[in-house]
């Protein structure tokens, strides 16, 4: 018997098929409004079989209402104050930096990995925070590499 290993991906919701997006909507409605899954399925307009086929395979990256630890990896230009600018964006978002790992710059680019912790209040600021970091001059790349 061959066991299939599980692989996980972070995917932008906009590229998912409608059936998967509708399952996400059902889960959001159930969580926010406290109605039954059956009522939410009817409201969204998908079949129960579609919902139950995918429901166990979809989990939001950031679940609201609890602390979340996640890691980001960045490629930064080796410039004075570069990391400080990023720390200021993170602090303004209400996110806590748990660990910092920085490699020696090679060809003017330093790889930095940060472990960050959000709470329920700062959770909704994550996307904005990541966009602001990406917009900083000297940030070549930013990737979320995992969450706990």
Helix fraction bin: 25-40%
- Note the beta-strand portion: 15-25%
Distance between the termini: 31 Å
User: Oligomeric status of the shown chains?
Assistant: single chain
Count the DSSP helices.
Answer: 5
Question: What's the CATH first level of the largest domain?
Answer: Alpha Beta
Main β-sheet, spatial strand arrangement: 2-3-1-4
Give the H and E element order.
HHHEHEEHE
Largest pleated sheet? 4 strands, antiparallel
Which radius of gyration do the C-alpha atoms yield?
Answer: 19 Å
Average pLDDT metric: 85
Q: Architecture of the largest domain, according to CATH?
A: 2-Layer Sandwich
Structural class, from secondary structure content?
alpha+beta
Number of domains: 2
- CATH topology type of the largest domain: Alpha-Beta Plaits
Write a concise synopsis of the structure shown.
The protein has 148 residues and is an alpha+beta fold. It has helices spanning 18-33, 37-44, 48-54, 82-92, 126-135; strands at residues 68-77, 96-102, 109-118, 139-147. α1 (18-33) crosses α2 (37-44).
How is this fold's topology laid out?
Layout: H1 18-33, H2 37-44, H3 48-54, E1 68-77, H4 82-92, E2 96-102, E3 109-118, H5 126-135, E4 139-147
Antiparallel strand pairs: 1-3, 1-4, 2-3
């Amino acid at each position: 018997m061959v066991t299939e290993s599980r692989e996980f991906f972070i995917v932008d919701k906009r590229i998912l098929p409608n059936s998967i997006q509708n399952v996400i909507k059902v889960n959001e409605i159930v969580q926010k409004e406290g109605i039954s899954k059956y009522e939410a399925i009817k409201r969204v307009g998908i079949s129960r079989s579609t919902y139950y086929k995918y429901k166990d395979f979809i989990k939001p990256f950031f679940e609201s209402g609890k602390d979340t630890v996640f890691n980001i990896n960045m490629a930064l230009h080796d410039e004075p104050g570069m990391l400080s600018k990023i720390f200021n964006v993170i602090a303004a978002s209400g996110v806590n930096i748990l660990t910092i790992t920085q490699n020696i710059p090679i060809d003017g680019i330093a790889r930095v990995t940060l472990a960050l912790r959000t709470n329920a209040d700062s959770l909704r600021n994550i996307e904005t925070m990541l966009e602001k970091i990406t917009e900083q001059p000297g940030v070549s790349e930013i990737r979320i590499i995992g969450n706990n």
